[in-house]
Design brief:
heterodimer, A: mainly alpha, DNA polymerase, domain 1, 3-stranded antiparallel beta sheet, globular, B: alpha+beta, Aldehyde Oxidoreductase, domain 4, 4 domains, 7-stranded mixed beta sheet, 20 helices, 30% helix
Chain lengths: 112, 750
């Protein structure tokens, strides 16, 4: 498992695959899921996702967003190569990769 | 959708942990996020909806609810179909909420997602429904105001009269519902569109990005059990016997049993395809428990031998023999090579191809091979079923509820009106979910255990238990005379278990002497529709071949195609040519212009072009390849599509970009191979899908602008990507591509 990235959540600020994370490994770190990223879907990454109307089927997008949010937390101004490196564990079968990259760049800019 | 509070799943685990205060600092706001700004949930007042027709409901306080008839699998029909309704209704899009309609073919039409048909088949009915509802609202206003109906105007959700009277749609809804439904409505001219052709955001966008439970796998119901099937390790095998004693000792396990999906003699429709008929089922309380317990099964499998299926046919029913045996890719290839030498079924013949080839100064002959492909939808197959003595309720992802309902009715012995199907958003479809055998399986399991159940396929089940794109081969031959004119064209295509040839498509109609033939080899490996069936192979093979023919003729590949299309238009050869040469040429000339083909400024790229017609639309791509880290990489793509009127342009652009990425991925990596009947790939570690770092940096999408009624878009952009990638690879590496997938190690290519 841990092949597709759709189940990505945050352990602290780090993106992890929940399908491969035993509860024993959580310790005292906070877990954030897509439902907890923001109260109203207004995290900069979520807003950028809407602005670029990224989703097709949408199944992978929660994981994509969590990976992107974690990336921007540690690297607020990622290059294309940084984005590729951070996001290549998240498969999108519909092929929305270009819009995901655009959205991450928008979120990065809007983050100041 | 209901959420159980008794079973821990990923979502409820976090909630329960938070309530227990288990020392975990949760930033998750699971409860409050349920109140996310969702217009429908915020505004819904049950019982207040006034139904004007099957698709349109309005509240007196002016919220308009539009039901999307077709299941959503990412092609964005939940936005584009309601846009068509709202256009003729003259609704204010801001006041519109959209819901997926239930399965109801009487009220909501065919409800079939597939064949790039949703927008095409609903283009007229939905606009008529919108126009009729608008007329009913105008009539209600006319009666209320005591003015002639012809004097009532409707615009953006407001009715008005020159006297100064005006009313929102909601105010007139109750009265409008009593007006006779008008017929023969005049529909708008495209120049008057205000919603169609104006990009609208995905109506479920907010739900998607906040992780709302939209998918079948998210669905929960009180008392719901989880079921999984242990399928045979190989095609050509079936269940002989099993020992479940260890499995039954595992925690949470309720039952283990075998059942037959279709009884002997069951007459299968075209979409009743199933991988295995004898099912070994484990039912328990949770996914985890069932997954673990399933591993403890001790099962004996045996060869199926030759078996028979009964299929519905034009003349009642027919018997089809499914061969036994454990098939391997290498042996399949050898068999195909043998079959390719034998006489085949004649599909089309124009002129005298035999003489043309006999007299040719040069013959170019090339053979192309492509493997089975797995759909690999991100959400594996699953379905919820609750079957009781007098009713059956289903919730889950599928493309065509109307096709499986008769099957459910037969196997459950329930009339169709006792079968309720609610379609969830699909985590991908690509044709796979047109074959809803997993739903029939869920039905029988629920009936057997007398409980609501959800049948879940794991990723591995999904990939190894598939209904694959067939394995194909085709040999193309071109005859050139001494002046390098194309005087003959021959395609002989075959496949396991179906041939791919579209005999009446380009270049049929453009060559005097033309021959198309097909042959098939039966197999026990199950196959079905995969995004642009057959076309997804033909466009790879034929468009690579034409590139090679153009080179041999000393012609630019776009120029050769345009010359042939000119011939097909001015003096078409034969009958039944499926394509419109003008529209075909249109996408080629536009992609030539947009990409600056053969012009300066593109020296860093190795360029490949391809075009194809399928599902009533036309698509052309120019693929710009570079070598990056020693590997061919598609950096930039120009795409041109002619699908008539584009209902939702930005979303359509997204679809085309996705099709390009999907095409590159499948061309480079896609392959499902077998050894002794067993699929050799089971998850994404050995079935490569394209990833972020391999997607092009730029995909420019252009639509041909015209006022032709809209045609397909989900499939047409996909097939020619394969050909354009193959042709760009030739320019990059100097080697022609004959075997897919292109990026596999040579020994792993089929």
């Amino acid at each position: 498992m841990a092949q597709c990235g759709a189940c990505t959540v945050h352990l602290g600020d780090t993106a992890v695959r929940s399908c491969q994370l035993p509860v024993s490994a959580v310790g005292k770190e906070a877990i954030t899921t897509i439902e907890g990223l923001s109260a109203k879907g207004d995290h900069p990454v979520q807003k950028a996702w809407l602005e670029h109307d990224v989703a097709q089927c949408g199944y992978c997008q929660a994981g994509q967003i969590m990976s992107a949010a974690s990336l921007l937390k540690s690297n607020p101004k990622p290059t294309d190569a940084d984005i590729d490196a951070a996001m290549s564990g998240n498969i999108c079968r519909c092929g929305t990769y270009l819009r995901i990259k655009e959205a991450i760049k928008s979120a990065s800019t809007n983050n100041g | 959708m209901k959420t159980t509070k008794t079973t821990y799943n990923r979502r409820s685990f976090l909630k329960a942990s938070m309530l227990a205060g288990g020392g975990m600092m949760l930033s998750v706001s699971w409860l409050s996020s349920a109140k996310a700004a969702d217009k429908l949930e915020a505004l819904n007042v049950p019982g207040q909806w006034v139904e004007l027709n099957g698709y349109i409901q309005i509240t007196p306080d002016n919220v308009i609810r539009l039901l999307c008839p077709n299941p959503e699998f990412g092609q964005n029909v939940m936005t584009s179909l309601p846009m068509m309704l709202a256009e003729e209704l003259d609704a204010d899009w801001k006041n519109v909420v959209v819901e997926m309609g239930p399965h109801d073919n009487t009220k909501l039409g065919p409800q079939f997602t597939g064949g790039s048909n949703s927008v095409r088949m609903y283009w007229k009915p939905l606009r008529e429904a919108g126009a009729a509802a608008r007329q009913m609202l105008c009539e209600a206003a006319a009666q209320t105001w005591n003015v002639p109906v012809g004097e009532v105007a409707a615009k953006a959700g407001v009715l008005s009269h020159s006297s100064g009277k005006s009313a929102k749609y909601g105010e007139m809804a109750t009265k409008a519902a009593t007006v006779a439904v008008p017929k023969g409505m005049k529909l708008k001219s495209p120049k008057d569109f205000t919603i169609v052709r104006n990009s609208k955001k995905n109506v479920e966008g907010l739900k998607v990005i906040t992780g709302k439970p939209l998918f079948g796998l998210d669905y929960r119901a009180d008392g719901m059990l989880i079921a999984m099937i242990q399928h045979p390790p190989a095609f050509g095998m079936k269940l002989k016997s099993f020992d479940a004693s260890q499995t039954l000792k595992m925690p949470g396990i309720k039952d283990v049993f075998s059942l037959k999906l279709y009884e002997d003699g069951f007459v299968q429709g075209g979409f009743d395809t199933r991988t295995f008929n004898d099912l070994l089922v484990v039912v328990g309380k949770s996914t985890w428990e069932v997954m673990n317990a399933r591993k403890k099964l001790l099962v004996q499998w045996e060869p199926t031998g030759d078996s028979k299926d009964t299929m519905a046919g034009r003349d009642g029913k027919r018997e089809v023999t499914i061969p036994g045996g454990l098939e391997s890719t290498s042996a399949q290839l050898e068999k195909m090579q043998e079959m390719a030498k034998k006489p085949a079924q004649l599909l089309r013949k124009d002129g005298d191809p035999e003489t043309a080839f006999k007299n040719a100064a040069q013959i170019i002959e090339r053979t192309y091979n492509a493997p089975f492909l797995a759909h690999n939808t991100m959400e594996p197959m699953n379905f919820f079923a609750h079957v009781t003595d007098d009713k059956a309720v289903f919730v889950g992802p599928l493309q065509a509820p109307g096709w499986v309902e008769p099957t459910l009715s037969k196997v459950l012995n329930l009339p169709a009106d006792k079968i309720e199907i609610q379609m969830t958003r699909m985590g991908g479809g690509f044709g796979r979910r047109a074959y809803a055998h997993y739903m029939t399986e869920a039905a029988l399991i629920s009936k057997k255990v007398k409980a609501p159940i959800k049948l879940i396929y794991t990723r591995e089940d999904d990939m190894t238990y598939g209904i694959y794109r067939p394995m194909y081969t085709a040999t193309y031959r071109a005859a050139l005379d001494a002046n390098k004119n194309l005087i003959g064209f021959h395609v002989k295509g075959g496949g396991i278990p179906e041939h791919p040839v579209h005999a009446n498509r380009f270049p049929a109609g453009a060559v005097d002497n033309y021959l198309a033939e097909g042959w098939e080899i039966p197999s026990n490996i199950t196959i079905g529709a995969f995004r642009a069936p057959r076309s997804n192979f033909n466009a790879a093979a034929e468009q690579s071949f034409l590139d090679e023919v153009a080179e041999a003729m000393g012609k630019d590949p776009i120029e050769l195609r345009l010359e042939l299309l000119k011939r097909a238009k001015e003096n078409p050869v034969g009958k039944n040519n499926e394509y419109d040469p003008d529209r075909y040429a249109g996408v080629l000339t536009l992609v030539r212009d947009k990409s600056n083909w053969n012009k300066g400024g593109n020296e860093k790229y190795h360029r490949g072009v391809a075009a194809y017609f399928c599902h009533n639309s036309y698509a052309a791509h120019v693929v710009d390849m570079v070598t990056r880290d020693g590997q061919p990489y598609v950096e930039r793509v120009f795409s041109v599509i002619d699908c008539g009127i584009v209902v939702n342009p930005d979303s359509a652009k997204n679809m085309v970009q996705g099709a390009v990425v999907d095409g590159i991925g499948n061309a480079f990596y896609g392959a499902l191979t077998h050894k002794n009947g067993a699929p050799e790939q089971s998850n994404f570690h050995n079935y490569r899908l394209i990833r972020h770092n391999e997607a092009p940096k730029q995909i420019d999408v252009h639509f041909v602008e015209n006022d032709i009624d809209p045609t397909g878009l989900g499939e047409p952009p996909f097939p020619p990507v394969f050909g354009a990638v193959a042709n760009a690879l030739y320019k990059t590496t100097g080697k022609r591509q004959y075997n897919q997938p292109f990026k596999a190690d040579p020994e792993k290519r089929i």
